[in-house]
Fold these 2 entries.
Entry 1:
Amino acid sequence: MKLQITCIPGDGIGPEIVAEAKKVLEKVGQTYGHEMVFEDILMGGASIDVHGVPLTEEAVEKAKAADAVLMGSIGGDTTTSPWYKLPPNLRPEAGLLGIRKALNLFANLRPAYLYPELAAACPLKEKISQAGFDMLIMRELTGGLYFGERRTVEENGVRKAIDTLVYDENEIRRIAVKAFDIARKRRGKVTSVDKANVLDSSRLWRKVVEEVAVGYPDVALEHMLVDNCAMQLVKDPAQFDVILTENMFGDILSDEASMVTGSIGMLASASLNDTKFGLYEPSHGSAPDIAGKDLANPIATVLSAAMMLRYSFDLDREADAVEEAVKQVLKEGYRTGDILSEGCTRVGCRQMGSLLAERIR
Ligand code: NAD
């Protein structure tokens, strides 16, 4: 199979971690007989330096022409970098918002998995963390409160701010379908999170999710109120498989879920549209404090590449091989500085990438 992948190395540690993800993908290609065709585009600060804008039309067109996009990270030190003296619409982050919009990426997926070897980094009590957890948060990314009409007014000398939370049934249905499809590739359970005891938008959410569930008799569906879900994530995270939720609830819950793993350099993510196309990137930022020093952990980006193999190319066996390589390297005791613990072998970004590539079977 020929895999046409547009890469956005970006800023800070971005180019270092993307290089290692490419190394691993090349090895997957050699092992399983696929041709990897990479094309790099500029975005964020790297694009500002060359083109004066964080994202060009030409870059968007190249991303659209690919099967999938693999990204490092964008942005610089927000207090010292000259990029942050520019107006907001010309700063690095505007590039990311621009490409998400241009590619209609409405579904954001963030897995949170606790590797037994990294359990010490988990901030939960041992009796909870020892059960392990492996969940995926599916967050609606282009609707809801963040995109509703908003205004601030003054009435009779009193300032008043209004935000609106709107979802139509089509927006809910398309993300629910994604969640059920992905649950089928995992352990077959969807927890739909809402606030149906208060919000009309949540009551519609619940109805439409139930309608979609009818087409997936092999997937178990449960509903959970968002306040309860926030508690359950720290009380019993092992109960979750796929958590499906709207934009703002997902924003908050996905940060909570990723923080209970305790390891920012390990967290992958994907943003998908209604085709197989997706943009895959680590959940962390561009870490300007360690950029160019061969200190970055490339695993989050490598695991994002595994998600790309699974969700954009349906190459489950190859994605499993990448995830197994990560487990193997951790089992053998290799660690980058951010996940280092006593008795382990410290390696840099490049060596970690090579170790992972060597373990692709
Ligand atoms: P950050 O995630 O870049 O860094 C937070 C801390 O985690 C730092 O100490 C950093 O060294 C460490 N860290 C992050 N990733 C690591 C890795 N792979 N290996 C080892 N250590 C790692 O967050 P920040 O410092 O708040 O943001 C820095 C820049 O990144 C900002 O410009 C911000 O806007 C941008 N950012 C971009 C994205 C994105 O591209 N999607 C996401 C978040 C932040």
Entry 2:
Amino acid sequence: MTPTPVTPESILYAAELLRQGQLVAFPTETVYGLGADASNPEAVARIFAAKGRPADHPLIVHIASPEQIDDWAEDAPDSARKLAHAFWPGPLTIILNKKAKAISAVTGGQNTVALRIPANPVALDLLRAFGGGIAAPSANRFGRISPTQACHVAEELGDSVACILDGGSCSIGVESTIIDLSDEHPAILRPGRITRSKLKAVLQTDVRLSSKSQIRAPGMMAVHYAPNTMAMLCPAESLITMIDELCAKGKNLGILAFSPAMAETPCEHLIRLPEQAENYETALYSALRELDNLQLDMILIEQPPENEAWAAVNDRLGKATA
Ligand code: TXA
Ligand code: MG
């Protein structure tokens, strides 16, 4: 499936495809989504078929305005409205107790629903043109690296999608932060660009890092976001030695590094990522995908710092190298 350039006409066409129960891949500020009409169980079933994803894994419902929270969620707490006000449109997904409109094909049979307003003009135009909620996971095959460009979606999903809207590269590049507000203790189910400190500052209360059952957020499973090539995290101090040893054994290596010292490393497939956490985050998936496509023996990844700014990166790298 060749990506479609974004025009007012192609947005209307994509909205019409959604109404017909077809799948439309679209850009968000985080990663590309694989969208279907969230109110149509057959359309939603197509998402799971296209991704090869187990049907009990719930999907995020993307909406166009905060007023739509109450269409999908029962008794949404003030905390949800505060977060929506502070961070939407933006890379935050809020889990709330669901209303009947959130069908079990979308919620994976749970009594909660995940909601988000994406901060991407194409996504917002599509949501407005369509009018309803768009259920959308990341537009990759189950367990694979999330797509941050339209060509990645084409690579992942081929013709199982009716249209891929090409909105260029995603500005954030990792999936949204997920916060669970379905009970009185807010908990982060997946770290993202909206950090725990930012959430705490708005909520004026503690926000836990979740210890909830893994199945509730398959993004939390060990083997998620994984490249096909074996990937390994390596502290900067030992990276050079490691590269030397493996090269001496004739291994064909890919390297993902960010510290300036690594720029001199004699390795053909070295991608130097930005030193700043958010810029690194934005570039990560496409770099990982590029190395993964080279049929290398192994990808060595320089271990980033262990602090909050790097939480989303460390979470994804942990999974990519599990
Ligand atoms: O940035 C994003 O969130 C992207 C873009 C397209 O919006 N979407 C995305 O979707 O990453 P997906 O399906 O790859 O990841 C959504 C995560 C999954 O781990 C899913 O289990 C979790 O959200 N989730 C959805 N509904 C949930 C619910 N009711 N309770 C707990 N987790 C839920
Ligand atoms: Mg995903």
